[in-house]
Write a structure and sequence with these properties.
The protein has six helices and five strands. It has about 170 residues and is an alpha/beta fold. Strand 1 (about 25-30), helix 2 and strand 2 (about 50-55) form a beta-alpha-beta unit. It is globular. The mean pLDDT is about 95.
Amino acid sequence: MSSVPTAAETATAAVAEAIERHLTVATAESLTAGMVAATLANTPGASGMLQGGVVAYQNTVKAGVLGVSRELLDAAGSVDGDVAAAMAEGARRACGADVGISTTGVAGPDPHDGKAVGTVFIGVATETGSRWFEYSFSGDRQDIREQACTGALERLLAAVRGLGYRS
C-alpha cells in the first residue's frame, strides 16, 4: 500500500478539519470540472463545510460568475496563476465561504494558451488574501485531472489547517 494519501483520504481530512474549525469551503473548477467538489461531497459530513462550487470551463463563466477580470483573461489566458487565484476568490465570494479553492490547467491532448500539457494552477483564497501554486503533472488527460484534484485537496487541507478557529 502506498504511503501517499489518496484524494479520498485527503478529502476526509480536509472535511474533518474544516468542520472542527467551523470553516466553509467553495470550489471553482475549470480543468477538473467538478471533481474536487464531488470528492469532497463523497465524504461523510461534507454538508457541514461545503458551501458549493462553480464549474467554470469557459472564460465567459470565469469572468461572468467568478468575477475574473476580462483583461487578465485576455492578457494571460485561462491557464495562469493569477487567474487561479481570482477564481478561488470568486468562488469564496459567490458562495459565501471562508475558503475558496480553484483549478485551471491543461489536461491535453494539446497545449493551450501557450502552456504545455500537464501545466496546472491551483488557487486558494481566504480572508487574508489569495495565492496560487503551479504544478507540472504527467500522464494522459484523466491522470492529469486526477492529479490536479488531489493537489487541490492537499492545498485545501493546508489552507484549512492554517486558519484559526471561528466562533
